Amino acid sequence: MTCVSRSSNLEYKIKPQSNPEFDDYLADSKSPYYVMQVPNHQISKLTGHGGAIHCLQYSSGQGQYLLTGSSDRSIRLYNPAKASTSSVGSGLVQTYSAHGYEVLDISVTEDNARFASVGGDKQVFLWDVATARTLRRWSGHFGRVNCVGFGGEEGSVVVSGATADRLRLSVGSFDATVRLWDCRSQSTKPIQVFEDSKDSVSSLHVLGHEIVTGSVDGKLRLYDLRMGMMYADTIGHPITSVQQTDDGNAVLVSTLDSFIRLMDKSNGQILQSYKGHINTDYRIRSCLGLADSIVISGSEEGKIYVWDFLEGKLAETLTAHNGKVASAVSCCSPRKEWASAGTDGKIPSSKFRDVDY
Length: 357
What we know:
single chain, about 350 residues, mainly beta, 5-stranded mixed beta sheet
């Protein structure tokens, strides 16, 4: 793997309204930008977890279902359309129990038949959705596993990223690796290991033959598996979340300086930045939504912030989670719906409807 380091243009805090590089990016984008009204009407509140919720993801396709992972060691499958804002446990379809420690991330295959989960077990779990049984368990990480994603044909490869093992770090070694696991093989060993990160790998996103990772060491890394190249961009602050745009031309990066940046994958430059939320201590994940027309993020004071993707302007601020940390968000573009999760253990689901509030 050949490594290339790039320096990002980080000397300013607020992007100007006119950005020629962003204009070029939009002109080259395969998905035309358009503005949609922000979903801001709460349609349900999903409850039942006994602790903080660290991750959530809509099912693939139409996004009818929602998977959540919690510090109570369980994974729950909900149908938000059948849930209410008051009934406890409403909308619950299935519970998945195998983790011995907190669940930190979930990823679903495109056919919704399987999902992967990771957490404090230092293992990667592959699940069958219908039977609620684990199909595979991969061991090899030496620290807790923070993030997971599917890649390859029909989700044949699972990618996982782990926390640095402080005990091993003290003797000159640590995990902080990205590992690729073959779902079709009976081998328990990873097919490839990336050891470039100098600290915990906090987030990753797989798109085609490329893997983007964010690390606490403040670097955004792009692994091009087809070309055998690794590109590293120095952000300068611990990264909590990464997501590639649908066209694969840019990456949304959240960091512990209360900023979210849109980075150009081709040259490592900043296309746009989003601010207003608070994120200095906890891993808070942001996401793109509604055909990449909005940016959504939680905040440490329990609010949800929504920005206009193109202009970087704050479009909506919603109060949720009773002032507790809003740690994760997930958006379902086909249903024009999004959900958030936090340390209060509840998941409010919001959707735009033509109703009187």
